[in-house]
Design brief:
Oligomer: single chain
Order of helices and strands: HHHHHHHHHHHHHHHH
Number of helices: 16
Radius of gyration: 20 Å
Number of domains: 1
């Protein structure tokens, strides 16, 4: 059995464990994973992406994504009303800029294409789908579930690993199981603490409940807040969605750490490793002190790792098509990436 196959089988085991944990204690598992596994994932992945040149064609292309991340963070903290109002546009610009920086080498053409993307945002004003997709789904569930699955599929096809392909199938089955198997949920933690700590993610759950046809919750207002929160935190549709969200985030982090021997993100100078561990320990401590404080402390880092990963996401998609083309033509060797 090859190292890749061993990792694929261990990943399937971690997947099942994450699914069981999410099924039993969805809110608690999410809050734990996001506070403990999340910060270490952000720190180590950004460092690893830096070593890989962020999968862009230009050495300093990533600086543009960092600038966008800073502007989005300022908008999140309401530093400027205008920045807050264009946060969705900034995410959209970052998403398409990553594609441009991954595919185009000529700097002049690259800048022109990014300017065209910026101008195009004026045509999407008032679009509900645009707002929901880019502001809510893309940096959350698409990032942790869909892109993780695509990254796994690319790796499986590239290594010609049958267990790797099976792990992608298992990922889908685990996600579907939360909607196939309805069950009640008894919180282990204090209900009020769960609601307060998870509060900033409640809009994601509301949108997913509506998307999956499990309800028809209206936008949060003073009049609808109670009904929405009751559905999200105390009703079957909310439990189903929360199990999916908890599983997606938890496995997203576990998948990253399980591939340490292959990705080798840990091979950095000791001072760098100690610095990363110190920031991680401080972050976990802040989450323990106040979940709200922890979320604010790590907002830039968490959002930045999403933006900086976009070029890799595109590279994975391109790689999947290359590998499928090679398989269709009967090629035994993986396509070059």
């Amino acid at each position: 059995m090859t190292l890749t196959e061993k990792i694929d089988y261990s990943n399937m085991g971690l997947m099942v464990l994450a699914a069981i944990a999410a099924f039993l204690l969805p809110f608690e598992v999410f809050l734990f994973s996001y506070a403990v596994l999340g910060p270490l994932h952000y720190l180590t992945e950004i460092g690893w992406l830096h070593k890989k040149g962020f999968y862009t064609t230009g050495k300093n292309d990533f600086v543009w994504l960092v600038v966008l991340g800073l502007l989005i963070t300022l908008g999140f903290f309401k530093f400027d009303v205008w920045l807050e109002s264009i946060s969705t546009n900034l995410i959209f610009i970052g998403f398409l800029s990553a594609l441009i920086m991954m595919a185009i080498k000529d700097n002049a053409l690259k800048i022109a294409a990014i300017l065209a993307v910026v101008i195009s945002t004026f045509f999407f004003r008032g679009s509900g789908f645009y707002e929901v997709f880019f502001a809510i789904f893309l940096p959350t569930i698409i990032h942790v579930f869909l892109f993780t699955g695509l990254f796994m599929l690319y790796g499986a096809l590239k290594s010609r690993s049958i267990p790797g392909v099976l792990s992608v199938v298992l990922l889908s089955l685990c996600a579907l199981s939360f909607f196939w198997i309805p069950a009640n949920y008894s919180p282990l933690a204090n209900q009020q603490y769960l609601m307060e700590s998870y509060g900033s993610f409640a809009e994601l759950n509301r949108q997913l409940i509506n998307l999956f046809g499990l309800g028809n919750l209206s936008p949060f207002t003073a009049e609808t807040s109670t009904e929405n929160l009751n559905t999200i935190f105390m009703a079957q549709p909310g439990f189903m969605v929360m199990r999916f969200v908890a599983f997606a985030y938890t496995y997203h982090y576990l998948n990253w750490f399980s591939k340490t021997s292959v990705i080798q993100w840990h091979k950095v100078p000791k001072p760098t490793l100690y610095f990363v561990l110190a920031i991680w320990a401080l972050s976990v401590a802040l989450y323990m002190y106040s979940y709200e404080v922890g979320l604010k402390w790590l907002f830039l880092l968490s959002f930045l790792h999403v933006l900086l990963e976009f070029p890799l996401n595109y590279r994975s998609i391109v790689g999947i098509f290359q590998e499928l083309k090679a398989l269709a033509s009967g090629g035994m060797k993986s396509a070059k990436s």
